[in-house]
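Sequence only, no structure available. Ideas?
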Amino acid sequence: MGMIAGGSRARSFRTIFATGALLIAAVPNLAAAQERGRITGQVTDQATNEPLAGVQVFIARTALGTITNAEGRYVLVNVPAGVVEVRVNTIGYSSSSQQVEVSDGQTATADFTLATSAVALDEIVVTGTVGAVERREQPAVISSINAAQEMERGTSTSVTDLLTAKVPGVQVTSSSGVSGTAQQIRIRGASSVTLSNEPLVFIDGVRASARMMSDINIGGQGVSQLFNLNPEDIENIEVVKGPAAAALYGADASAGVIQIFTKQGRPGSGRFSQTLTVEYNSLDQHWTPPANFARCTAAQVAPTSTSLLCRGQPEGTVVSDNPLDRTGAFDTGSMKSVGYSGRGGGENYGYFISLGYDEEDATLPNNSLDRRSGRVNFTFVPRSDLRFEAGVGVGRTESTFPINDNNIFGFLGGGLLGRPTTVQMDEDGEVVGGFYIAQRDLDAISSIESGITTLRYTPTLQAQYTPLPWFTNRLVIGADVSRTNGTQFFPKNAEVWYGGDTDTGALEEERINFDVYTVDYLGTVSTLFGAEDQFSADLSFGAQAIVEELDNIVGNGTNFVTNANRVIGSAAQITAGQDYQKTTQFGVLGQANVSLWNRLYLQLGARVDQFSSFGEEADPFFLPQAGVSYVISDESFWAPLAGAIPTLRLRAAYGTTGRAPSAGASLETYEASPYSIVEGSTGNGVQPDRPGNFELRPEKGTEYEAGFEAGFANGLLGVDITYFRKTTTDLILQVPVPPSSGFETFPFRNIGEVRNSGWEIGLRGTPLRMNNLRWDFNVAASTLDNELIDMGIVEPFGTMNRFQEGAPLGAFFSQQILDVDTENGVVTVTPADDLRFLGNLLPDFEGSATTTLTLFNNLALRGSLDWKQNFKIYNNTAQFRDRAFANSELAIRRDELLTDEERLRRYGPFVDTNGETVSYTQVNEAYIQDGDFVRLRELTATLTLPGAWAQRLRASGASLTVGARNLALWSDYPGHDPEVLAQATRNTGANTFQREDFLTVPQPRRWIAKINLTF
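Reply:
I predicted one. Tokens follow.
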């Protein structure tokens, strides 16, 4: 489908791009004379006197800044002569500042000692607001993850691992245990039926793609472009959950924002440090597939029978077979990873370079993940008022996938749906058979080649210019360019492995070009006023343009002469198709921050957005924002309470965000339809597809949140609590049209409303801190109440995952059992038009707990638990084995293992209250099961080698980490893994509202060993 609307916005984008380039070019003479000096120093931990690496050091109201090295040292150059304010801050510590006098040509010294703080109100956050501000100034919740520390001491191998069980209100669910498959990310639940509920992703301020590809037939397995990112390159991650997204990210940020910041150089350091990381993972499936069962018939027990297990047995004998276990389908997998990075800088520049290589062979045949990555980031600070940051990341990911997950012809489908009675002895004396289709055994399934390769570039350029102490400009230009190729090949064979034309060879090729371009300008004016300068104000203004372009070409070929010539052009039968979409978003924004005595802050902002998705005539989308933050513990009247609660901040925020559909959603569309009047000839025709709706608007999310942060025990313990309530109006739903209209697809209308609300609680601290012993912990928990309030004129739709007023989105429904008559052997259920609610799709309570015990400042022992409660999962694997295929032990021995009532509840027969016979497929109460679980997510030990030991390795520093991921699971769920999604195929539409375990591989256990060497 082509998209024509939005041409003027594309021209606007080009204009802004050119203006930005001219702005950089027009910067005043860089060599202007100016008295300058240097500042150097060291940042250490107050309690242990150990150096702190990765601490941000900067001079207020300038473009000068750097980070500390492994020894905690820093250098700031080109510092204007006079008195300047040097500030330092890092996650988990209180910030600090000093007034330093700098003389021309001289070097001043400023050392800092930072105290551990569980409530770091002075920490700098840059996401969700216009310009970097201290956390105390931001009324809405911004959550931070120290990715560099997590990678050094944890077991994460991807960006989504870094997000898992780290932030309250952020839910990450694996699609399967197959390597390379994507996770589903939800921030504060789901609030749209037809549009994406996935958060936006930004890398260094540039919109990035997190789209999922699953177009080649690999079952329910999806592939996310987040796997292209090397987590070793990431410094920290910030997560925006609600109102904070309104001004900066606008009318497409209703599902939240994830901002990824990569590692930068160290301007002024004058030295170069290198890090070499070597890691090995062992993947253990630690799961034995259930066996298949059958009863032997008279023909199967006969002496002439080919049934190896039944021949010679009494009729009715129960036999079993486990073809996946017997053929050794699962093996021990491995991941080998090597990473190199260099970091340093000169007088007025800094740089970071990295190379990474990961090679993972998983537990199933034809499953691998190879990732090659590289990154170069360069910082240039020619003057104290000017800073340039440029970078480019390059990644290539090659993944191969088994035919599996939501596929009855895949490994688990073939193995778990097989029949023991088909097990035979072949002419070579080998045991064969037992699979669902006799010909499609382990070798046949393994021969299918499915792979996805993505090459990705993410260039960025950022300029910060502060011509006056009270006026700052920032310009960001960047892109995310990806080229993806998906291939699936069924080799030509004579064994009739697949059936039909596929046995003569079949090839599908898909090429996807997906590009995202970003231009973002922001200006900020700051001032002090009042008799004692007690008031401060920042007025920010800016504009942002984002263009997304998708070009997708797919081709299919069947009937090949030879497997060696496997290109579509060599196939006897060829089909092809193409899809093209282009959308443009343009927004202007403004925000004012006013503070009193640096403790009471008021924030007001607004943004106006326009989307090409809605055509040229669509009205702009207005997004207001407001908030207040009050550090009440800074007031003099708080002094009597300061001993018990030294830190307390109250906050409240309001914001409006949106969500826009893909290109062409508002247009009247048609599709080609060939016709024939004379036999043997065809003409080019057209038929209606979707009626247009030029009044279509974005979905509008209005969110309120309020909470507080409090510190106890001199800042060693902290708690933050937030209540949020989000109402999504103008919900976009498809409204049925009469068949007589001629349109095949229902149009989109703004007619619905959804509400999400809940609590988020964080508890962190360092309750024990001595010279050789330190204990840190972090506990996070959240609740979620989701309800579809209004559907307008649209009738409830969906059967098992249903959309109905008064219920959560996509909640589980079924014809409910009303009575079990064991005497007459019949079960009465509700009619088909009276489906009953059975449970939530998403957990309404989840949490995590991480604890770290550090001994002698060298050995860190860390463990992490996470849990989810009060949600259901459809155990379709058990349903298929019990009822559709009747090859489970429960199905074969139902009379022995089940009571009369239990047997009737599962197998029926079923009738409704009107006396109508009901198919068992409509009564799934027994298989919509509790998914509550507690998982030991992570357990590690990290030893930091003493300096003398590291020097023996010719390194300045060394650490060794050993551990495990997914070590243990506690759950009453009778299936394989309650934390999987059998159909994670798309990130938009109602089909994402499925939580189903259907022939899905559980998550493997990872044993990890990693060494880091610094030179």
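The longest strand covers residues 506-529.
Hope that gets you unstuck.
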